[in-house]
Design a protein that fits this description.
Layout lengths: L27 E7 L2 E6 L3 E5 L5 E6 L5 E6 L5 E7 L10 E13 L7 E10 L10 E8 L4 E8 L3 E8 L4 E8 L12 E7 L2 E8 L2 E6 L6 E6 L8 E3 L5 E4 L5 E5 L5 E5 L1
Antiparallel strand pairs: 1-2, 2-3, 3-4, 5-6, 6-7, 7-8, 9-10, 10-11, 11-12, 13-14, 14-15, 15-16, 17-18, 18-19, 19-20
Length: 267
Amino acid sequence: MYQWRKFEFFEDKYGGKSKVPEEVTGEILCCSSGRGKIAVGCDDGVVCLLDRGFKFNSAFPAHSSSVLFLQHLKQRSFLLTVGQDEQVSPQASAMCLKVFDLDKTQVEGSSSSTAVPDCIQILRIFTNQFPEGKITSFLVLEEAPPILVIAIGLDNGSIYCIKGDIARERITRFTLRVENASAGHAAVTGLGFRNDGPSLQLFAVTPSSISLFNLQYQPAKRQTLDEIGCLSKSVAMSDRLVCLCGCFVIGFIILLDNDMILNYLVF
């Protein structure tokens, strides 16, 4: 079933009136918002916090190298980041997941802009059971506190999932696989969680497919929703839990609503 819809994504009156503060010196690689703040991660390992007016609030070193992904939680003032740090051993991966409590900070020096939030947990993303790969997408779902569900998409079509109380490292790990990802188009470019009654579902998008995993089952059940996908940074979930995918070849947006009805918006 096909339906046509039109959306206004931007308002012209705000165009060009905001710019990145000069205090943000690194190249911005990722961003997230929540609880009245905008967090941006940079290639120098620094996270900068801005207010709603794009004014600089503070910055702190999160990783020794680039901050590749981050997400600011809504229910709690936690910031989760993914980036590279120093290797503990040649066998251990340098890629880390960190959890920062933005409500608990330690001021370094005399300037409030150097306040560093407490890092309450560090997890190595890759282990012997979860081999290293290039991370192409990252998403966090807040269930009933303190439970989080983290999905990490890789360029080989795998999705590493971490569920539990991350701060206390009471977690379980499992892997999902987008099986029909074609050669050269296997990267998981986008992720989206949705709740369907008691069951938790996960959208997984590659350049050549859109899949849906039902995480209520072990192992999770997968179904292919479409054989058209999209590139990275082109997937979003609306507040009404509609998955939006911006297609790169034929210029339209795929919308998947709560009834899994495909809608196409041409632009």
